[in-house]
Amino acid sequence: MLLAFQVLGLTLGVIGWCLENSCTSSHSWRVRSHSGAVTTNNWQFEGLWMTCAATSLGSMQCQRYKTVLGLPGYIQACRALMIIALLLGLASIIVSVLGLKCTKIGSTSEQAKGKIALTGGSLFILSGLSTLTAVSWYAARVVQEFHDPFFAGVRFELGAGLYMGWGAACLAILGGVMLCCSCKRGPSVPTTGGYSYNYSKTSGGQKIYRAENVSESGSSKAYV
User: Fold this and answer.
1) Which tens digits make up the pLDDT trace of 175-187?
2) Which of 55, 56, 119, 160 counts the highest number of beta carbons within 10 A?
3) What are phi and psi of 160, to 5 degrees?
4) Which PROSITE patterns match (predicted)?
5) CATH architecture of 2-181
6) Where is 52: in which H helix or E strand?
């Protein structure tokens, strides 16, 4: 049961990481609004890395941003957050695979593999939170500029890339939580070679040890 839980969490995390990759390279984080336009023959949409324009005839032209330092601060921050999310997601996939119960790594104990899976799940959660912060910050700025009556620039609306980012963040966080919950430590079983001892104190403070009964398989011996 725990293995299936781990595999499901890893699968959700991998899907979330793939969506994060698509979201980072998407060119439609925001789309030009046509609320006050008479005709809608032209479309303009922008992403983190370039801006694109399309016409009703099917032609589309994309151009990278000419400057990096001249971009608004929130766009540069969103770029950094998405790159961090991708790196954390890649590391979490590798660590989570090594922490699966079906993965054999030398003589690694179950407790050690549980800690590895917990680390992978935590990295997935951090990756999802980083993506969620980036897309939510970007969306807040788009909404703020759209409703600002004193904004003189081009008004944009939320694009498909933002919705993709929200979905990726939810899947990554859900997969990380499932991986973290799958490494519950079970009760430790004492391994004393078939013998266990208990003791009791007498009135004089002396300790009396008594050996408990052992199983027949551990105590039976054949004599010739």
Assistant:
1) 999 998 887 654 4
2) 119
3) -70, -30
4) CLAUDIN
5) Up-down Bundle (1.20)
6) strand 50-55
